[in-house]
Amino acid sequence: GTCSTKMLAARSLLRLRPIAFASAAATTTAFAANQVAACRNPEIHLKYFEVQGIVETTRHLMALGEIQWTETKWPLDMSKISQGAGAASPSFAAAVQVGELDKNLRRAPVIIVDEQFTIAQSRAIERYLARKLGLMGASEEQAADIDAITEHVRDSELRDLTPVTVPKMIG
After folding, report:
1. N or C: which end of the chain has fewer CB within 10 A?
2. How far apart are the C-alpha atoms of 38 and 134, rounded to whole Å?
């Protein structure tokens, strides 16, 4: 995809996700400036269960950025979850045994970037992708605002935040 396509997609996302990206909405100019670096998308391999779960934001960010990715999707039998991860997902247990998830303390998700570097923890993955796509503001202060708002939304599970309270938080 082209940089202009990414910019249009980012603006659409910013309109659709005003709470999580409130500060980013004010930085579309910075986003455009960051597109030169963002145009070179990394090769990503995602490892997670064959469910939506916590990696949906990661998948949405990769789709937004037109990042082509591959996935290892471990089947998950929810009827066996009470027996432990090994019973519910033998292929996940095998990945743990061979050390594929050591960087994430034997948990998922992880991404492997350019077949060289593993990034663990869903929020770290999201921040990495947001920086690659120019969605983390034009300064460290804006990135901190975006980060804080995202964490407030996660902490509250959206029950206490409304579009009215977010602008008050960021001044």
Report:
1. C
2. 7
Burial zone of 90 (CB within 10 Å; 0-12 exposed, 13-18 middle, 19+ buried): middle
Q: Among 58, 30, 25, 24, which residue's Cα sits nearest to residue 44? A: 58
Contacts of 79 (CB under 8 A, 6+ apart): none
Give CA–CA dist 135/129, Å, rounded.
9
In this structure, what are the phi and psi dihedrals at residue 72, rounded to the nearest 5 degrees?
Answer: -100, 120
Radius of gyration in angstroms for the set of CA atoms belonging to the chain, rounded to a whole number: 17
Reading the block at residue 89, the tokens are: 């997902």
| CA distance readout (Å), 6 to 31, 45, 138 | 10, 20, 17
Please state, in angstroms and as integers, the Cα–Cα distance from residue 151 to each residue in 69, 107, 109, 148, 156, following that order.
26, 21, 18, 5, 8
Residue 49: CB atoms within 10 A of its CB come to 20
CA-closest candidate to residue 64, choices 111, 134, 155: 134
- For 134-163, what is each residue's pLDDT tens digit? 889 999 999 999 989 888 877 775 565 455
**DSSP classification of residue 82:** G
Return the amino acid letter for 17.
Answer: R
